Amino acid sequence: MTSNVNAASQETALQIELLEQSFAKVKPQANEFVASFYDNLFTDYPAAKPLFAHTNMAEQGQKLLMSLVFVIENLRQPGELTAALQGLGARHVKYGALPEHYPLVGNSLLKTFEQYLGADWTPDTKAAWVDAYGLITEVMLEGADYDAAAVNLDSKPVDVPESNIKSGTVASLIGGGIVVLAILFFLI
Description:
Blueprint: H1 5-11, H2 16-26, H3 30-44, H4 57-73, H5 78-94, H6 102-117, H7 123-144, H8 148-151, H9 170-174
Helix pairs in contact: 2-7, 3-4, 3-6, 5-7, 6-7
Protein name: Bacterial hemoglobin
Keywords: Heme, Iron, Membrane, Metal-binding, Oxygen transport, Transmembrane, Transmembrane helix, Transport
InterPro entries: Globin, Globin-like_sf, Globin/Proto
């Protein structure tokens, strides 16, 4: 089944405004936000650090920031986001990203938003980002099109803790603003 962000957004009420407003609150501190995201990711999930062993983190941070801005600016154009996210998912296979890495990124993203939004990190805001990232994950994994050999890489297993991010229910997840943060995993 192919996730169509456009069709899904019709089925559920997107929380686009909430996603846009919350992102606007962290945007003035965008560079610090991105640095905190990677700090959270590597502190909470040290097993993720080797994926970036040969990465210029200053450039990576700018790619993440540009991806987040792209997503937020295109929330009202889900067709473009779907194509971009599927392409991103395909590229992540080449980088060694596996499906179990997605919740790590999602949890770190949520933690970073909570840190920067403070009192504005309400249950509704959290739900919007959880739903959005869940949908983003679904779309990216569709683009990744993992086969058995790709998923069974010769690598050490990653300890994946309990997550707030749900996958598998694309239609319900799409209502959260879908691809909004999806590109947050833009570990391009």
